[in-house]
Amino acid sequence: MLICQNEQEAADGVKEIMLDKKFGASGNHVVVEEFLTGPEVSVLSFCDGKTVKPMVSSMDHKRALDHDEGLNTGGMGTVAPNPCYTPAIAAECMEKIFLPTVAAMQAEGCPFKGCLYFGLMLTPDGPKVIEYNCRFGDPETQVVLPLLESDLLTVMQACTNGTLDKTEVKFSDGAAACVVLASGGYPVAYEKGKEITGLENGQVPGAADVTVYHAGTAIKDGKLVTNGGRVLGVTATAATLPEALKKLTPLLTASILTNCTAAVILVPVPLRQ
């Protein structure tokens, strides 16, 4: 995907894709979409085919470097709840996006059961859908599920059985933040097999309310080593988002960061009430 800032960048991008064959045969066709501006929101939701219950909102930090700079990645970190996703916006999304989506799939004879992911952008003209996914998001899940107070298995069984409307889905009033530690050079070229130190049984010793999720790691000769681009996701939970981020701050300079890099997560001020 190319996000072009002006007409010349768009023309150069089309040339690279269609004439220079940067992406091979995949570039024989291009799709031109409207350029949307505004903060992004990820809303995962439970769905049983007719009822949809959104989970707590989250915000994904996609850029590789600090201050929202660098190449797009699979996600360098997340926070939940999303500070821009106000109750008023949530109600608007439920009325105009979530319920119509579920109803449309049911009307077409293909009701969806499971986790339905809404990728949204809060534009000056209101919330717009950027993408749908029929799965949990990564790294959104690492901040959303730690805030779930209801039993996950019970909720997923309700999605399967069509009884979600009778099942409580409750999230805590707290917050969570996740910082992804990536191999140097990601998302372009990077080396594997670099030793990761500072963890015991894969976790940070003595760190309360902090969980390390392993993505690109492996055991080699009895040592934990890097084995991918995005290596670890470190999540902290707390009563507030600043408190959750504060728990992660000392870890960003600790030895678990050996041979990894992390981007600073920027938390914007809500734009709409």
Task: Based on the coordinates given, report the CATH architecture of the largest domain.
Answer: 2-Layer Sandwich
Shape: globular
- CATH topology label of the largest domain: D-amino Acid Aminotransferase, Chain A, domain 1
Number of helices: 5
Helical residues, percent: 10-25%
User: How many distinct domains?
Assistant: 3
Percent of residues in beta strands? Answer: 25-35%
Helix-strand makeup class: alpha+beta
- Contiguous low-pLDDT stretches (5 residues minimum) are 264-273
Distance between the termini: 31 Å
Count of beta strands: 12
The first-level CATH class of the largest domain is given as: Alpha Beta
The CATH superfamily of the largest domain is: ATP-grasp fold, B domain
Taking all Cα atoms into account, the compactness measure Rg is 20 Å
**Main sheet characteristics:** 6 strands, antiparallel
Written description of the protein model:
The chain has 273 residues and is an alpha+beta fold. It has three domains: 1-35, no CATH class; 38-67 and 81-173, D-amino Acid Aminotransferase, Chain A, domain 1; 175-265, Glycinamide Ribonucleotide Synthetase, Chain A, domain 4, CATH 3.90.600.10. 21% of the residues lie in helices and 30% in strands. The strands form three sheets. Strands 3, 4, 7, 8, 11 and 12 form a six-stranded antiparallel sheet that branches. A four-stranded antiparallel sheet has the order 2-1-5-6, sandwiched between helices. Mean pLDDT is 89; it is low at 264-273.
